[in-house]
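PT: before anyone asks, these are the final sequences, not the draft ones from last week. 508 residues across everything. Please model them as a single complex and drop the result in this thread when it's through.
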Amino acid sequence: MVIVKRKELSLLERLYLPEIARALSYSFRALFKPKVTRQYPEEPLPKTAVMRGQPRLVLLEDNEHLACVSCGLCEVACPAYAITIDGGATERFIEREPVRFEIDMLRCILCGFCEEACPKDAIFMSDEVELADFSRAALVYDIEKLKRPKAALQARIDYFYGANDRWRKRSSTS
Amino acid sequence: MSPIWVWILKAVLIYGGVLTLAAGMTLAERKVAAWIQWRIGPNRVGPWGTLQPLADGLKFIFKEELVPEGANPVLFRLAPMLAAAPAMLAMAVIPFAGEITLFGVSTTLSIADIPISALYVVAIGGMGVYGVILGGWSSNSKYSLLGGLRASAQMVSYELSLILAMLSVVVLAGSLDLRAIVADQSGSIFQWNIGRQPLAFLLFVVATFAETNRHPFDFAECEPELVGGFHTEYSSMKFALFFLGEYCAMIVMASMTATLFLGGPEVPYWPEAPWFAQLAAFLAKTGFFLFLFLWVRWTLPRFRFDQLMHLGWKVMLPLALANVFVTGMVVSLS
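LR: through. Structure below.
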């Protein structure tokens, strides 16, 4: 058993009023303190490369083709079954490219497993975090909504290489 | 006697002003809360959020009205009206300013000048407890009932100290007329009752907090224990009416404090002040006490119920009685 020894209050403290006046003066000064509110849509959150936003597909340097070869590893790695890939043939050197690449953003848990699984550095967690729409169907993102020029994801790519340099080499195709 | 249209005009203007002030108080409450917590507060609706009360009001009107199963249908609907009406009725006798002459018509800036106006405010204000307890009882919910019971116990206990504190002022002025009490304090700033009756002032202010169910005595709607207190089951405009009543009661109490202890519409060292200066002085004094309500709310923690009863019956009531006794002795001996 623990007996808590409470501090004996002095007469002034037991009278309440001086203490109330002290508290009031404190909260009155707080009225004029600089505000900590961030006005969110106008004043966006600070973003860092460490943060995992929504996954996005990287475009090659030509800004036209995806780096993705539709190997399906991210689809397998995804713990939320959010990714759906249909592969197809292509005349390009890599021979395969995704015909359909969909991420159901409502299922995605932003874990970043797809990014780690990808052998072609084709998918990265972007710094985009805003996710709102009027229908569920609109939140299943297809290639058109997912593809991003490499420059937009460069900060994350650099961070990712830095973090994983020990066991990972840059992909030959990107 | 002024013609009838003057009375109607005064009633419309004063009630319009009071209701607007009550709406403004809802915004002020959120703004002051935000500032004290280093936040900004509502600032999206209108410039600096000034149209927020309007948006809230519109939303309240369009919300669905729910009547819980097993609730007493008549009393459940009657309670919000009973909560809002007395507070607004009490506004009728508050002297906002003295003589006013506009377009050749001379009148006083209060809806009614009755010789027992202080008594009237207390009597009407005491009826506010009906709305609270009926609202709590009729909604067929244990939390509402407990909130209503607590609120009524608290309002009844603190009403005694409130009235006794008021009584010592009445004894000094020798009249129950608020105008006479104001006239009694005219002259210099040292003539104000806050200087002549500091204890009564303190007791009155503390009691107004309990009377209006405001922090630190807001047991009626003690969220962590009672969900929402007596208005847990209320929705839509009925819910808003309870709040309108609360804010109107705050305005009445703040203006009563200003009238009884700060000379009401008296402008210090300017006995011949025109009516608008008097009105401004009155609003400034009332505004300070309204701000005090918000200020205290975001400063002090809530009391425990037994502490509240202890304070009300064992501390404030004896002090108030002793104060009335001493005041009466001094007045009768001098």
